[in-house]
Amino acid sequence: MKPNLQDISQNSPRRQILKTALTFVAGLTTTSLVSFLIPKSTKPAQAIVVQRPNEFELKGGGADIKYSILNGVSQLDYKTQNISRHFSGDEIQTLATDIGTLVTVIISRPPNPDLGGKMVKLSLLLPIINLAIGNRESPVQTQAILTTERRAGFIRTPLFGQLQSYQSLALKGTARYL
């Protein structure tokens, strides 16, 4: 059976759309336009809704990292065998990029910035993850980079050569929507 205008009930919004469209479209037959407007499936259309995780629990390279955004406030916990640090709010820098969100915190600073020393930063790359409604978690694999930067301070002479070195951490864990 070929669909035509008579197949659509008089009170249907689809019929009204069809009549309006025929008024403005030239060269398109009623049959082909109705075929376009009639759904191919008998099941009702459903919107696909996704949610993004707001908590990441990650492990790797001797580090445990937990990052979350709850009530609009970012929190990051970084733990190794020697270090346990908690960061929140303005202590955490985020940058949206084409490859995910880069989350950066300062793990350690020189004890006396006037004398210089080493500053260590953690940069965590969070991939984009879509969770289906009702599915609250997903496995995740990502990377973090520990950057150690030599700083001269105000009293010393300038430093020469490479000032930053990097250690990459392969991380695995779980992304959740809370």
For the structure shown, list the relevant keywords.
178 residues, mainly beta, 9-stranded antiparallel β-sheet, two-stranded antiparallel ribbon, 11 strands, 46% strand, elongated
Structure, explained:
By secondary structure, the chain is mainly beta. 11% of the residues lie in helices and 46% in strands. The chain has 2 helices and 11 strands, in the order H-H-E-E-E-E-E-E-E-E-E-E-E. It has helices at 13-24, 30-37, and strands at residues 50-51, 55-60, 63-70, 73-79, 84-88, 93-97, 100-108, 117-126, 131-132, 137-151, 164-176. The strands form 2 sheets. It has a 9-stranded antiparallel β-sheet, with no helix packed on it. A hairpin with a 4-residue loop joins strand 4 and strand 5 (84-88). The radius of gyration is 28 Å and the shape is elongated. The relative contact order is 0.17.
